[in-house]
Amino acid sequence: MATRNRNYPELTPAQEAAAVALAAGSTIEDAARKCGRAAVTVKMWRRENPRFNERVVELRAEMTARTVGLLCEGMTYAAMVLRTLLTSGTESIKLRAAEALLNHGLRVREASEFEARLAALEAKKGKQS
């Protein structure tokens, strides 16, 4: 009997490997090669094993969350770079940095305000239900 994954006991190591590959964007054929099974087998897992599909979704969500974290870190660094460019000796660089900061700052504010309004509406709707 195959060793099972601790988090998803009904998945074999091959299924876990295929789920990771699919979550990362591999085709079924590539996922099959990575887990050492035939593509038809991976297709069957997708069709007949709901836990396999749940694991693909869970892994994709984890990968997305890590990616968003990296993007946020990069945005912080980019904002610091733009702030530094505001002190540049070249007027055109200062102007472009200022425009970028103002433009992006306004977008972030709008998105934040929208998110707060949406959360308030959802809370209100939840109380009405």
Mind sketching the topology for me?
Elements: H1 13-23, H2 28-35, H3 39-48, H4 50-85, H5 91-128
Helix pairs in contact: 1-2, 1-4, 2-3, 4-5
Explain this structure.
- With 129 residues, the chain is mainly α.
- The chain has 2 domains: 1-70; 86-129.
- Helices cover 80% and strands 0% of the residues.
- The protein has 5 helices and no strands.
- It has helices at 13-23, 28-35, 39-48, 50-85, 91-128.
- Helix 1 (13-23) runs antiparallel to helix 2, helix 1 (13-23) packs across helix 4 (50-85) and helix 2 packs across helix 3.
- The protein is flat, with a radius of gyration of 23 Å.
- The relative contact order is 0.07.
Number of strands: 0
State the separation between the terminal residues, measured CA to CA: 49 Å
**Radius of gyration over all CA atoms, rounded:** 23 Å
Helix-strand string: HHHHH
Describe the global form. Answer: flat
Portion of residues in helices?
Answer: over 70%
Number of helices: 5
Number of domains: 2
Instruction: Please state the average pLDDT score.
Output: 90
Q: Could you tell me the strand content as a percent range?
A: under 5%
Q: What is this structure, in a nutshell?
A:
The protein is mostly helical and 129 residues long.
Task: State the main characteristics.
2 domains, 5 helices, mainly alpha, 129 residues
